[in-house]
Amino acid sequence: MSALNVAKFGGTSVANFEAMSCCSAIIEQNPQTKLVVISACSGVTNLLVELASGIQVPEERQAIIKKLAEIHHSIIEQLSNTTTVAAEVNAILESVASAAEAASFQTSKKLTDHLVACGELMSTHILTQLMRERGVDAQRFDIRQVMRTDAHYGRAEPQVEELKQLAQKQLLPLCQQHVVITQGFIGSDEQGNTTTLGRGGSDYSAALLAESLQACGLEIWTDVPGIYTTDPRIAPKASPIAEISFSEASEMANFGAKILHPSTLVPALRHGIPVFVGSSKEPEKGGTWIRQEVESSPLFRALALRCNQTMVTLRSAKMFHAYGFLAKVFEILAKHKISVDLITTSEISVSLTLDKTDTSGGNPELPQAVREELAELCTVEVEHDLCLVALIGNKMKERPGYAKQVFGALETFNLRMICYGASAHNLCFLVNSNDAKQVIQKLHHELFEQA
Ligand code: ASP
Ligand code: MG
């Protein structure tokens, strides 16, 4: 393992001049930080996604491009030497305008990725210049040279082996000489087309790069000082967690604690790289360390909430005492690259929830073609407006009576699709979206506020 540290800054951390200056100060403080991975400035990816959806009215497109220009130029204006960086950003904005026009004729996932990647391409130009003006030897690097992915636009899969080789050859030597500033979220396929790793993918990029460069640490800087027992905006008594294991943190990320992209911890875990999560605005507040070995493993660690869930229930009397039904269902889902989150089964039915994190965003939907194929096997029922609540902890399945404590607190709510017992680290279920906040508040009160 090298003494190289990777730091990633999210959209709010690079939202404006002050925020970017905080990032630079954090980077300057740790001489081991040689690779900096950043997101687009806050709000930019959303605007680009809007353009990619194909806006017909030219004035509406121009209004969005104007907003994009304002976000970036308001930072550039505060730099001392603006000529080069302004020209670079303007060139990207021009390509945004022509791609947005193309999208107004015909949208595609490939074009969407080409467009949304522009956010990170711009923010990295600006941060590099800002850091140079603070006296840092910063060097911008286009990550598409090494972040090789497949061509699954909107949710591209990184090709880990190729990425490693390319990063060792092209990126490592640069990191040995400079502080390298690069883009999260984006990559390129074999043909050189731009791809993206899915919304929030910068964390994942940073982790993959940390793994490829055999880094000794990965810092994820965001707008909250670490991981909490639950979202403090929902339960104000939520408390920060100083240290958490990879397994617990992965469960949290998977089950909707928005703090980390769900795939982030996979490369970090593969390579045993400790991950720090903290707030770039308040670095002095500390944060959460995610490690393989932790000092305490409490029965209840945290509560996560993920809204906007779609539940699909498939029923068939033929399933009764038959074999191969589930295999057929999953074959259809796999063929259409539909990722399933939760699953519960009974003798004649199976319920599942869909996962939706690709770059085009929107509600998770079961595409019509999939629905039709499934309908040949069974009846298909789709329900929306559900939220997934996950209780994360340790050795829960070995502890008699804990379910009573959990469900007892939630007596008055209608809980669906309870998944209990398969994992030692989580218990989860769906609730109506109207009940979600109250469920979290009640459960947090019962399990985390009693000591
Ligand atoms: N800018 C991208 C997004 O907003 C990627 C990221 O922030 O991680 O989803
Ligand atoms: Mg983000």
Automatic annotation (TrEMBL):
Single Gene Ontology BP annotation: threonine biosynthetic process
Residues where substrate binds: 45, 120
Residues the record lists as binding ATP: 8-11, 222-223, 228, 233
SUPFAM superfamilies: ACT-like (SSF55021), Carbamate kinase-like (SSF53633)
Gene3D superfamilies for this protein: 3.30.70.260, Acetylglutamate kinase-like, Aspartokinase, catalytic domain
GO MF entries: aspartate kinase activity; ATP binding
All copies of domain ACT, residue ranges: 314-389
Cellular component annotations (GO), alphabetically ordered: cytosol
Entry-linked PANTHER family: ASPARTATE KINASE (PTHR21499), ASPARTOKINASE (PTHR21499:SF59)
NCBIfam families reported in the protein's UniProt record: asp_kin_monofn (TIGR00656), asp_kinases (TIGR00657), PRK09084.1 (NF006570)
Pfam families registered for this protein in UniProt: AA_kinase, ACT_9
Source superkingdom: Bacteria
Record keywords: Amino-acid biosynthesis, ATP-binding, Kinase, Nucleotide-binding, Transferase
Record field: catalytic activity: L-aspartate + ATP = 4-phospho-L-aspartate + ADP
CDD domains: ACT_AKiii-LysC-EC_2
E.C. no: 2.7.2.4
Pathway: Amino-acid biosynthesis; L-methionine biosynthesis via de novo pathway; L-homoserine from L-aspartate: step 1/3; Amino-acid biosynthesis; L-lysine biosynthesis via DAP pathway; (S)-tetrahydrodipicolinate from L-aspartate: step 1/4; Amino-acid biosynthesis; L-threonine biosynthesis; L-threonine from L-aspartate: step 1/5
Protein name, as recorded: Aspartokinase
Assigned protein family: Belongs to the aspartokinase family.
